Structure formats: C-alpha cells, structure tokens
Amino acid sequence: MATYHINVNGQDQQVEAMPDTPLLWVLRDNLQLTGTKFGCGIAQCGACTVHLDGNATRSCGLLISSIGTQKITTIEGLSAPGLHAVQKAWIEENVPQCGFCQTGQVMSAVALITQNSNPTDAEIDTAMSGNICRCGTYERIKKAIKRASTPKPN
Amino acid sequence: MDDHKIFKVSRRDFIKTTSVGVTGLLIGVSVSCTDNKKNLTGDPQSRFTPNFFITINGSGDVTLIAHRSEMGTGIRTSLPLIIADELEADWNRVKIEQALGDIKYGDQNTDGSYSVRMFFMPLRKAGAFARTMLEQAAAKEWGVDVSTCKAVNHEVVHTSGKSFGFGYLAAKAALLPLPDENKVTLKSPKDFKYIGKTSSIVDIQDIVTGKARFGLDVNIPNCKIAVIKRNPEPGAGVKSFNPDEANKISGVVKIFKLDAPGFPTNFFKPLGGIVVVAENTWSALKGRDALKISWEKGKNADYTSSSYIANMMKGAKSKGKVRRENGDVDKAFKQSKTILEAEYIVPHLPHSPMETPCAVALFKDQTCEVWAPTQDPQGARKALAGVLGIDEKAITVNVTLLGGAFGRKSKPDFIVEAALISRNIGGPVKVLWTREDDIQHDFFHAPSAQYIKVGIDKNNTVDAWLHRSVFPSIGGTAVDQANEPSGGELSLGMIDMPYDIKNVRCETQQAPTKIRIGWLRSVSNIQHAFAIGSMVDEIAFARGVDPVQNLLDMIGEDRKIDFTSLTKELENYNEKQEDFPWETARFKNVIRVAKEKSNWGKQLPKGSGQGIAVHRSFLTYVACVVEVSVDANNKITIPKVDYVVDCGLAVNPERVKSQFEGGASFSTSIALKSEVTVKDGAVVESNFNNFFLARMSDAPLETAVHIIETNEKPTGAGEPPVPPFAPALCNALFAATGKRIRQLPVKLSA
What we know:
- The complex is a heterodimer of chains A (154) and B (750).
- Chain A is α+β, with helices and mostly antiparallel strands.
- Chain A folds into two domains: 2-77, Roll (Ubiquitin-like (UB roll)), CATH 3.10.20.30; 85-149, DNA polymerase, domain 1.
- In chain A, 32% of the residues lie in helices and 16% in strands.
- Chain A has helices at 23-30, 85-92, 102-115, 121-128, 138-148, and strands spanning 2-8, 11-17, 49-52, 55-58, 71-73.
- A five-stranded mixed β-sheet of chain A has the order 2-1-5-3-4, sandwiched between helices.
- In chain A, helix 2 (85-92) crosses helix 5 (138-148).
- The radius of gyration of chain A is 15 Å and the shape is globular.
- The termini of chain A are far apart.
- Helix content of chain B is 28%, strand content 22%.
- Chain B contains 19 helices and 29 strands.
- In chain B, strands 10-11-8-18-15-16-17 form a seven-stranded mixed β-sheet, with helices on both faces. In chain B, strands 13-21-20-19-14 form a five-stranded mixed β-sheet, with helices on both faces. A four-stranded mixed β-sheet of chain B has the order 1-2-3-4.
- In chain B, helix 15 (525-543) packs across helix 16, helix 16 (547-555) packs antiparallel against helix 17 (584-597) and helix 18 crosses helix 19 (722-737).
- Mean pLDDT of chain B is 94; it is low at 1-36.
- Classes of the chains: A alpha+beta (154), B alpha+beta (750).
- The interface between A and B is large, with 60 and 66 residues.
C-alpha cells in the first residue's frame, strides 16, 4: 500500500492503494464515487469513463500511481449542483434505458462537445465508439449530443 | 387470465389481504382543520394504505410500490403510472418505492414480457378502489351522496365546486371498509391521463447524474469484496489449489473453496470454485490472479460447440420426433413443382448486460439480507432459503436497479454465492463478476441447427412445410432427462407457425445440454424467427412474388388460428388461446402498415436493399423492414429500420418505442457481431476484445417505431423487437447482394 494525493472534482484527496490499482477502484472503493461504473476492466466498453484534465479516459486502465497532479472529473463533479447541457439533453431526449452505461456515455459526450462544439455524425461515431450500450440507446445518444452541440454560425 | 394465477389467491382474498395494510392508521389521527380553506391536507402522520401498492399520507404524498424489476424497460415507471391514473393522483406528487421480494405482491418474476399484460387490470383496480374510498370519505364528510363527488387530480371535488385534498382525506378514507367491487368503476380509456401518453422514466435524473444505485453500487459498513475463480468447465470441481501467493497480496483476507454442483448445475446453484475475499476490489482481483488451481474434469470436458452444432445439423436432416402435424407432407412433396431446402445455424449467445452479475449479502444470526440486481426476487428468496436451510421469512431480498439483464438476472446463482460467502466469513460481502466471469460462465442462449423443406405446388401455392429444430433445452440445465426441446420452447416461434399451409410437420431431435443454457431476450424465438423469416423470403423469390405480397398470400384469410387440432404442446405464452388468440388480421395489418411506412420497394442504389420479416411473440405482432447497404469491402450499414408494433394498448408508448429502438441494436449484435464458442468444455471468448457487441457505428442509423393504436389488451414489448430483426436484415442483404445468409452472425466475406 502507498499513499497518493489526487485531485477529484476539484477536491484534494488522500488515498491508500497499491500502486497498480486502477483509478476506477480507487473512485469506487476508496471514495465511494460509484457513478463511475465497471464494465469490462480492459478499456473496451467505456462504462468507467472519467475526465483527466478534461480528456475522456477509461479509469479501469489508469493506474493510481500514474496520475500525479492531473485533475480528475467524475460524473459526480461534472456540473454539480446543476446539470450540464449534455445531461439536460440526455433527459430531454429520454436517452437511458437501464442507465448503467449512461454516466460513461455522458462523460465521453461532454469531452467531445467541449473539444468540438458542433461535431459531425462521423465525429460523434468516432468519439463514442468506445462506449458500449447493450440496451442500444445509440440513436438517442446521437440526438442528445446534437441537441447539446452549438451549430456553427453561417 | 384469472386473478388466481396472478396472485396465487382468489380475487376476494387479494382484495381482503391488500386492504388491511393500515400502517400507522390509528396513530395520531386528529382531524385537524388546516388553515388551507380547500382542506388539502390532514395530519401528516396519518396513512391511507388500502392495499400493498398504495399509501397516501396526511400531507398528500402518494407512495406507489414498484414490485417488478427495472432493467431498462421502464416498468418501474409504467406500472405505477397505471395505478396513478386510476387513482387520479397527480404524478408529480407520487414517489416510487421498490418492493422487497414478497409473495404478497403477486408475481414479481420480471421475465417473459408480461408485466403490463398481467398487472394492467389488477393495478387499475387497486387504484380505482383507493379512489372510490377517497370519494366515499369526502361524501361522508360533506354528508352528500357519493355520486356527487369525483376524484380529480389529487382532490375530491363536489358538484358544488368545493373540494378536499387527498391528504386531508387520507385519515378518513383509512377508517372506511373496502367497498364492494360493484361500487368501483374503472375509468373509461378516453379519460386516461397517463396511460397511453408519454412519460419520462422516474429514475432519469439519478441516472444521468450518477446517483442511481445499481447492484454494483450497494455499499454497507464493513463490506468485503469477493471474486471467485471458477472451473472453465461449468459445474466441474477443484482438484487442488495453492493459495500461498494469493495470501501474500495486501488486502486479501480469506481464501476458501466453494463446492461445485456437478452437471447439470440447476439454475440457482453457484458454480463453485475458489473464493478470494479481500478488503477492496483490486486486492481481490490480484489475489485471484495469483491462485494456483488444478481443476477436475467433468462430464462435459469433451464439449466443443462447432462439432456439436455439426452433429445437430446431421440430426436435423433425418426424421425426428413429431411435435406438430397437419396433412401429409411426405405425400405433398411428391407432387411439388418446386422444392426448397435450407439449413440454419445460430450460435451460443451470452446476455452480457453492462452490469455484470453482483450481489451484496449479510448473513447473521440465522437471517440473511441481500441486495441484488435480480429479475426474480421471490425466486432468489426461495433459492436462498433452500441453500442456507433457513425459513424464507428470515430472508430479505432488496431489489436494486438492474444494469441490464436480458434474462441473465432471473437466475439467482450469484446471489446465493454472496450469501454463502457471507456465512463463511461471518460478515457482509459483495460478490463481483468480472466481464470474463460473465461471458465465460453465463447461462447461454442455446446453439441451434434447423432444417426447413418447402413444397410449392403447380398453382404456385406453398402446400408443404417440414421444419426440424434441434437445440439443447434450457431444462437440461436442471435435469439430464430434458434432452430435447420442450413444448414451451417450441411454442416460441416454431409450432405456432401461422402460415396457411395444408401439410405441415414440425420435428425435433435430441440434443443433450452440455453447458448452462438459459433464456436470452425472446429465447428460442431468436432461431425460429430467423429460420422461418428467412425461408419465407426464399419462397417469395421462388414463387416470383414480391416478399410483402408473399407474406399476405401465405397467411391467408382473416381468422383466429385454432392450434388445438395441430399440436397438443402449444403454450401461447401461458395464456388461453381464447383470451389471446392468434389473429391473422392483426398480423396482416402490421405487414400492410410496414409496407407503407417503409416506402417498401423504393429505388435504392446498387449494394443496398430492403428486407422484411414478421413475427408474433409474447402475444405482440411485429413487422420489421430493414434497409441495408453494403460497400465494396463488405462493410454493412443499416440506414433505416421500420418496426410496426401491435402490442395492444401501449401504456407508455415512449418506452415501447425505446424498447424497439434498443431491440434493433440488440439484434444487430445477434445478426452481425456476437458469437460464443466452446472448446473442450471451456468458453473461448472472454471479454469485449474478442466477443463483440454492436457499437454506435454498427447500430441502425434510424429506427422508426410505428405503434398501432388500439384498445386491445396490452401484450409484450421488451422481447418482441428481437425475433424479426435478423431475418429482415438477412433478407435485405439478399436484396442488396444476392447472397443468402443462413448462419449467424453474418460473415459476408466468407
């Protein structure tokens, strides 16, 4: 076990963990931030997506010892206490079915929108292809991303 | 359908037993006239609980019980909506509480797409009884005839215009006897406020903010984490193991053996293996990786799915056991002008819900409490009682949200694991299945081999149909003797084949179950609809008739199909044929609407095509038109899907649509992506790097769902999207490429 200082959702946290512990389990087990989900453990499904300095990152493959001072944002810290525009769009489009993958989907979508305010269909496909939804809410995810995006002025 | 089947007690008993839940009823019922002139509220402590599903307190808060499991269908919203509508409650003032597993709620096994079908009328009655009592309480208070009082949006209003709030009336209604059933009137469908309208799911805000609690998210004080290393051959045991290296991992607290059940395993027994209990998840996983285990070989060590499927296909080519027969196919084939023959293969499929199986258990002082994403809390309770040897009353099953299920979480094996481990370590524990555990130790959809032979006579009419279906039965997971498909499994799309053909024979062959087989969303409808829906399209081309017209030709006259003379084995989704007949007019209607909505026959570029398939499952009629396009590299895209759905009255049409949109994606996985294989008793695939599901770039670009407006009795919505999709897609691929697909998943380049 070793002690790590990480910044999660704007707060400094001290956690005890083995150096090779994936951030996912630190978030869930040490910090009780359970909005970040376990889906595959090998960075193939996107359920565990968080932001690392604003970039969508699979927390199941990110070792606690490799984070350093990079800032971590989880779904809990995305826009608290209000809702992010992407979350609002998710509600307006009635996206979720079971809902388990949706926090990861939202985190991927927010990272996309932040970096590209008006993504094309192909850009959405590329950015979201790392997130699996077994219920199959993909069409509505795409609609919600478009709803939350800002059309470029003519 | 009668209430006896629903509640396992008579209707009278249901009303009686559900009428006396008077929690807090007689405590502090002081009739305090509030300042509010409309008398909206009463003593906040008072409670009106006319049955197990409804509580109204003195503040006017309405709490409705969701007694079935939410796995993404929206049932936690749709069933309470039914109650709220009849109750005339304001939906904004309704809170939903998830029920524990308890027989008092009636059937809680959330499976088989029957939640709305089974509970639509009972829950309407539950709401109507409560509404009537509130109206009676107001009438008594005012000293007027009850006919002059009417519940409207959380108040009871008198014809004079005065009103009482539900909160004010709660204490008074609680003192009234249950009204006679003939005093209770159900709403006219034209007065529905919520039923048939669009409503967002109650958990949506929690889901998008990460607050929603799934099974995986349950945390109780001092809870340890456990993972289990299971024999790659399901059911087989442990020869020996060495825990020394694992014990060196920081955080590992205990390692022990859980007995294997042998095979067949049954549905509720854990697979056994070596359990690693740790302070946290990562320690448990690392500990498990460090185990050294020598496995026993069991009776299925020779099971290899490819050779097994080849053997099943050999069986499908020879005469089998007759399960349905009309006319004489052998005689008819001798006079056929054209004969078509085809073989169809569907592989093992796993459920792979995004939330893997998981459960928290606390066994203490001969009681056990569990928290689990279970489809079947009563089944889990019974299984726990049996395995733990304690009374069901000592067991509490809390149902969390389910992160997907598709049939997997109707089996309680993972919950039993948690309870056994908790008993062993003397404290609370959470059992986690990794994705590898999930994919390799699932209750798989049965692999299948089918053969269909069709005769077309000189009048260009299909007059002979021979269908053989071979697959290991789900029952074989419980008993060795179940080594041939059951009537129930064949009722899912095979022996209920509706086409008007004079000579039909359906046969099966034996196929022993060699790995845990379970039910996956729509079960054996998957393979039967694939084979039949594909063959019907082949018939259209053989007859030289447009596929839509061919379907209408083959289904024949409007009628209710009487299967009783054709087969003794038809189960009709546990409904009497007279209550839910097979109606060809509804089948034809969805076909005709699909033709129109899909712009059937429209001009498409080279490499594109449309295909249609139609199927009735879970008593719902579905036509599906898929448009595909195939590029020079054989990459398949699906620009458009049109579903036409007759599921009777759609309680929450928005959720019916979402089930079909998602169903198209789920079925894209089945048709194009997913396959599990077994070699020497062990599953080969392990995670999403070698087992594939549809991603956004694979899924249909647009799925239009057209719901037939009708007041027919509600039927299923969760499973019916799946069966017709793969054949419609494969028929579209034929239109686009000229290649017939008879094996899933589709491999165009092969």
